[in-house]
Structure formats: structure tokens, C-alpha cells
Amino acid sequence: MFQTFEEFLATSSVQIPIVWFIINLSLTAVLALLLSRIYEIYGASLSNRKLFSRNFLLIAMTTMLIITVVKSSLALSLGLVGALSIIRFRAAIKEPEELAYIFLVIAIGLGFGANQGVITIIAFINITVIIILVKKRSQEVYENQNLHLTISGQTSLNIGVDKIVETLKKNCSAANLRRLDETNEIFEASFIVEFQDFEQLNKTKVSLQQLDDKLRFSFLDNKGVY
Fold first, then answer.
1. DSSP bridge partners of 153
2. N or C: which end of the chain has fewer CB within 10 A?
């Protein structure tokens, strides 16, 4: 009755049922694969969504394994704090949407690792349905915007994003800033823009060049402007 703390930690472990572990691990993999497919289709990130979504399966299954092992032993759960404190992640996540999907992937692993499969599946279905409905509802807006425009240059040019946005608003039918990267040396801004014809595109190009002839920009066509 008077166990020491060390004895309590040593005897507090619980045997993990192998069958349920395999089932939960398999369901984790299935949901992670479904989520990666949903992200590829309905994601709005300008980066390579297919390449980024390949990490979902590994992250979900690894999280599920860690939680399953840790919850079986109080000693392991206390040791996990020290083990994870030496890990530093330096992932190049530049868009909030990418971070949101990573959190959802981790939540899937946490749910099945805690043996809360039913709750996890219900939450996954509701979240993905909401994602699909929201994306479909806003799809009409993005269908009219037919070009990806990337503008880059040296930060020393002292051309603010506000000047670029103002120029685009004057010459484009629509302009939507999607991404902005800036360092002490260079900056890069990505837009989704809409042109009615090739003449409007050429007018926008001339106006951007008038800001500074050292600006570099590229147009990625989505459905054709000429």
C-alpha cells in the first residue's frame, strides 16, 4: 500500500490490445489519405499541394503511435515532455491553410491514439463536408480570376506592396493578393488577377514596368486570355 513513486511508475503501464491498435492505425491511415485528397482538390495554396499532402499519412500515423504508447504508461508520458523538448521543427509553412491542415492531421492521430475513433470519424466527416461546401460556394469567385501573377524584386527598390496593389486595381478587372514573402534583400508577391483581354494584360505589364524597370513578374495562365 505504501509504494514509492518509482514503483508506482513502474507498475502503472497498461498492455496495448494489438487488434485495436491495428484497427486504429488503419483508420488513421485511411482518414489521412482522404484528407490529402481533399486538400489536393479543394486547397487554395499556391504551393505544390500534392507534394505537401504526402506528409499527412506519416504525420497522422506517427502521432497516433506516440499517443497510444504514451497513454499506456505514466512514466512514458512524463518522459515524453523531455524527449520532445529537444525536437525543433523548421518546416517551411508560409500559408495559414497549410498549418490548418497540419493541425487537422495531428488531431486525427490524437483521436485514434486516445481510442476515440467514433468521435474522430464524426468530427472528420463534419469538418470535410464544411470544407467542401465552403470551397464550392466560393468557387464562382475564383473561376472568374484567370491568372496567377508573381511580382518580385529587390527590397532596396522601396516599392511597397501598396503601390503594386494600387497599380493592379487601376488596370485589372480584379486582383487578389494571395501570398507575400519579404526579406532584407528580396520580396515576392503573388496575386490572382482577372483580365478581359490581351490588351488589358499588356497595359498592366507596362504600368508595372513604369514603377521600376528592375521589377520581375510572371503570368501563369489558368484558362486563356488571348
1. 187
2. N
